[in-house]
Every structure is written in C-alpha cells, then in structure tokens.
TrEMBL record:
Domain Fucolectin tachylectin-4 pentraxin-1 intervals: 34-181
Family statement drawn from the similarity comment of this UniProt entry: Belongs to the fucolectin family.
Cited SMART domains: FTP
Pfam families found in the cross-reference section: F5_F8_type_C_2
Protein's UniProt name: Fucolectin tachylectin-4 pentraxin-1 domain-containing protein
Matching InterPro entries: BG_Antigen-Binding_Lectin (IPR051941), FTP1 (IPR006585), Galactose-bd-like_sf (IPR008979)
UniProt keywords, alphabetically: Calcium, Disulfide bond, Lectin, Metal-binding
GO terms, molecular function: fucose binding; metal ion binding
Organism: Pundamilia nyererei
Lineage: Eukaryota, Metazoa, Chordata, Craniata, Vertebrata
UniProt keyword ATP-binding, yes or no: no
Length: 182
C-alpha cells in the first residue's frame, strides 16, 4: 500500500514526481522544501571528548567520520548523555534527521530519544518525545517524523549508564512537507 499525505497544502497534489519501487524501502521517505533550522541554532552537550564539540552536529556537513572532525562526541562511559540545539525561537517541528557515525560504533545511538519542547528542565530531557532511535546503520541518516511538536529546544538523550553519544549531523525541519508511507 502507498498512502500520500499532504498537510495544509495550498494546492492539489500533482503526481508528476511520484516514483514507485518494487524493492523494500524505509518506512517513511520525506522531502522537505524548507530549510534546516538547526543550522542557525546553538548546540551544547553534557560533556565533550577532545575536539568533538556539540556544534559539529549542526555544521551542515553530513560527513560521518568522527576521525575527520565532523561529529560531536560526549565523554566515554557517561550516565544519561545528551546533546541539544537551541533554535533561538519556537518552531512547529515536523521532522528531525539524524546522521549516525560511520567509522565505528553505530549501535551506540540505539535507544536514544529525540525530545522537543520549550523547557530546559533536566537539560530538556523532560520535553515531549518525538521519537526513539531504534537503530541507524553505520554512516546512514534517518528522518524521524515529529507530528508537529512545538519547541525551541531539540534534545537527543541517551538514557542509561556507561553510554557514549556521538552525532554527525542533526537537521531540524518545520512547516509543510510531503510524506510517503510504504
């Protein structure tokens, strides 16, 4: 089954750009015409390992190799590490795209939660949950639909002890979008 959903579209859908595939595809494929608002934000994280500052995850580069200096990274073996971007104002967020590390350790991101809201209580980790990252393969980027959650802060929170949080890119989208469900 294929379902096409347009939220608040000003005009009817033209099926000129629809492609059909026989092979299995990810559950959701999104196309976002609006800019990545995280690029103008300010990032912070619970701790920093070496040169891997929080801002590396919102620099606009999807390079997934930590050793090349393009990814954020918290300290080793931390309890409940988190990463957060302050978007400078509240947006109605429709999706977050996360690029996982490609040179090792893809499983480290498993179980991370994407949270969005206007509160900094508990470092933003108490804000409403947009998604849980079950797994992103090494070096891959996945979109997570957020059902139009409003917020200024987008937090990636990894619950548990002896954890490491590394993000190579986090993109935040708001507004109208076209979404295909396979």
């Amino acid at each position: 089954d294929v379902h096409i959903l347009i939220q608040k579209a000003p005009q009817p859908l033209a099926l000129v750009d629809v492609e059909a595939y026989a092979a299995a595809l990810p559950k959701v494929i999104n196309r976002y015409p609006l800019p990545n608002v995280a690029l103008k934000g300010e990032a912070t994280q619970s701790s920093t390992l070496s040169f891997a500052t929080a801002s590396k995850a919102i620099d606009g580069r999807r390079n997934s190799f930590y050793s090349n200096g393009f990814c954020s990274h918290t300290a080793e073996d931390e309890t409940n590490p988190w990463w957060r971007v302050d978007l400078q104002r509240s947006f109605t967020i429709t999706a977050v795209k996360v690029t996982n590390r490609g040179d090792c350790c893809a499983e480290r991101l498993d179980g991370a939660e994407i949270r969005i809201g206007n509160s900094l209580e508990n470092n933003g980790n108490n804000n409403p949950r947009c998604a849980v990252i079950s797994h992103i393969p090494s070096g891959q980027a996945f979109y997570f639909p957020c059902n139009s959650v409003k917020g200024r802060y987008v937090t990636v929170f990894l619950p548990g002890s002896a954890k490491v949080l590394s993000l190579c890119e986090v993109e935040v989208y708001y507004g109208k979008y076209l979404q295909f469900f396979t």
